[in-house]
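Example record

The entry below shows one chain as it appears in the dataset: sequence first, then structure tokens.
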Amino acid sequence: MTTTGGEETAVSEEKSVQAWRVCAASVGAADRAAAEAGVRRAYRQAGLDEPEEVMWVGSPREAVTLIRASRDLGASVRDTVRSLPWAGERERLQAELGAAGWAAHWAATGGRLWNPTQALVDRIRAGVLEELAGGDTGSEAAQVRLVLLEAVLGQHDAPWLAAFPTDGGPLEGLAAVGRSAGWWWPFTRVAVVCERPVALHRDEAGRLDHGDGPALAYPDGFALYAWRGMPVPAGFLAELPGLTPERIRGEENAELRRVMLEYYGYDRYLSDSGARPVHRDETGTLWRVDLDDDEAVVMVEVLNSTPEPDGTRRTYWLRVPPSTLTARAGVAWTFGLAAEAYAPVVQT
């Protein structure tokens, strides 16, 4: 079987994407020997002396704490080690492929990994900032944020690494660290390198999501908790199995209340909380529960017109906008129609 140059390129791009997708999501102990060799290789490729020492930390939080407390690491060489080699490779590929070719290449490689990976990077940064700076919005937060932005992202540089050659070229050292470890900070004297996470849980949309413990955890105890992408406090998830309508109504944080409602189930909540039917017609029943400082929960109860094998008919609950006034309008909205346009011959 023969392949064209275009097919070979597509196959190569796909292999690169899949390999770096795995690296970005890798958990477990870093390959310290390979990572340290990659760090030293990256320094040499950047024209720098190798660092005198490679220091290991358990998480980005520990790295920021260490860096802020240390005075003998030397100056940051992140731009020399990371930014300049990447800029050079991008300029080379753009010249080789042209503007349109480069755009297509990025879309086929790094662009496919960018959103979920960058979302994870942003969450880690936000989690570290919250733990180390709390509610501070002044110099303390600015200093923590600056250290975070000085990181080379290791495995989370996967989108960029997927778009460029990494065997034998200027990015070889950076790629070796990316395959072997987490974030790292290059200084003239010392390189500070993070372990990878020990746990990572995401939903089908790529959002952090875990109902039983941290969605992301590092070996030193730094962890992020989330429910379908929504950040939640550590103790919040343990409370979910014992929820009651009263507890849900009493939650002052509207975003956490929505998580509670999703977990508890909107239909169950309506049933258990004394919701009032506000409209009935041949399409179903419209129910409404008003919530303090949040939009109302409004749902249409619909009885399936097609019997189940045992002869029973299943009831469905469809959440609709709070402004919905009739059951027909609610059902129509789920089909993207106005109420007057919804006129099914047979309901299914």
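Notes for this example: The chain has a mean pLDDT of 90. Residues 245-341 form one domain.
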